Amino acid sequence: MPPAVDAPARTLLPADATTFPRGLFDPFPSFTPSEGSIASGYDTLADRIAEAVPKGLRVLAIDGFHGVDWDALREGLSESLAVRGIDPAWWPTADAFADADTIAERIEPFLGGDDPIFGTHFPLGPDVFFDAEGLAALRIEAAVARGRAAGSLAIVYGVGAGLVELYDQLWYADTPKDVLQARAREDGLTNLGTDEALPFNLFYKRAYFVEWPALNRHKRRLLPDLDLFLDLQDAAAPTAMTGDDFRAALRELAETPFRPRPWFYPGPWGGQFMQDHMGLDPEQPNFAWSFELITPENGIVLEADGARLECSFDCLMFRENRRVLGEAAQQFKYEWPLRLDYLDTISGGNLSVQCHPRPDFIRRQFGETFTQDETYYISAAQEDAVVYLGMHEGADSDAFRKALEASSESGEPVDFEQYVHSVPAKPHDLFLIPNGTVHCSGVGNLVLEISAMPYIFTFKIYDYVRRDLEGKMRPINLERAWANLRFERRTKWVRDNLVPTPRTIREGEGWTEEVLMERPEFFYDIRRLNFEDRAEIETEGRALAVNLVEGEAIEIVAANGRRQVLRYMESAVIPASAAHVELVNQGEGLCRLVFVFVRPGIGASLPLNDPIA
Fold first, then answer.
1. CB 240 within 8 A of CB 44
2. Domains in the chain, please, with CATH?
3. Quick check: pTM over 0.90?
4. Which of 4, 127, 404, 534 is the most exposed place for a label (fewest CB within 10 A)?
5. What pLDDT, in 10s, does the model give residues 126-148?
């Protein structure tokens, strides 16, 4: 059921507003597959094992992602199995890990030295965390166990269990990355192969650059052969789907519009609009981010008969990337390339003054495959809001840097506005931010950030001498920023190139389609459908990221008959294989749907990158 709405949505807000009415936004979306069931609890898992043991299940491998509470899994499953008279041997893969110093030495080249934020993407799999002899010994024990008659059971469990290879069934346990990060912040979850709890920024750096790439490659290899997929974000109440049902659900998702599960986080500049409008945790000081479509960290929730199971978005890409992306899969492989997220500075503060890396810089320095070209779509704004974009004509970049360096040393503020150009911001404005452009959102905006997928590569230039929510100074990246800034982007160039005017390209009775952005600096285009009652979109082999920027709610009706409700400010994915969708207004008044897609020909006849090297 959608939430109750306190008052109609307003996108232009009074400058002094501090509280905002609840909107229709649903923060917990789910997708119900046409077939298949979701089992709940340890008893159902134990029943599955008890049924299989007499039929030859002797070695069960339970692999999974980092962050799974393996102790809780073992305890819960042991109790249920004991009731059924089964007492398995438990073999934790952690016993076969290499020692912490050896792991640290192996991955050290990818951690960026003393850099507190950035490293380089690790190119291999989870073998790096293991002692080869220890893993071989585990494999031998599995071979011995499989040589016995039916009736006994050994369970190999933990990250990398599938590397043992010799098993009768393979299960995979997952946990969402926002849950993983919360465990690291609150419960002292350590990185793989170490008992040392690092400060969160260092934990995240090692996870992002090493552990997640390694475990994602492993997950992709295992998905075709899984007998069972488990959601262990609540380790006391796991849910599960058979491998066949799970793969079938992913297949159906690949041709159906759906909403990933967004997640939300506070920040030092965070505002109050999302907290009120989206019905988020009132105990938090603010909410700065809504991760609507940041697929390396988003999950997709499947629901059947009241039970829910969440999988990582990349499971869908690993299985169905070509059906999801269409032609763009040639360039982007298993990566979903488009990002949607909200930045809330309403009753908050300015974002840091920043820029993003040039294409070859991000590749050579960090191992990413493309850079963070982005745009700001203003979803809501207070009356006096601005966006900072580009340099002033005549501003001295050397003087700017000296002022920033002096501020870093003295802790004194900088009058950055004498160097950085600002533009008034109002609802439905779009601002373009190709790589190397100095920018930030000023206070008073709810920004829908429409961007290429990389999402952590922000080089902060100035952060108002403020501290994060933990009381620490946020790192400034002047050296990297100055290596990437395009100082020629100044007031006139910004006005001529980065503040586009919508252009109508198609229209019919009660609807128009507009181009909002179509520039060679970006590999994606942004369009907007404006309609009163209904409209249609042909995907034409393109995957679409969409957001309802005006209107109460619409229903997206797919060619396969599936229907997805999209409420005001919600985001969704329309896979390329959906082919054709109809949009039906479910409320009163005009609807506006922004949709984003990779420009046809990118990676084939057209280059991926900004033509300005």
1. yes
2. 39-252 (3.40.50), 263-396+420-466+479-497 (2.60.120.10), 502-598 (2.60.120.10)
3. yes
4. 4
5. 999 999 999 999 999 999 999 99
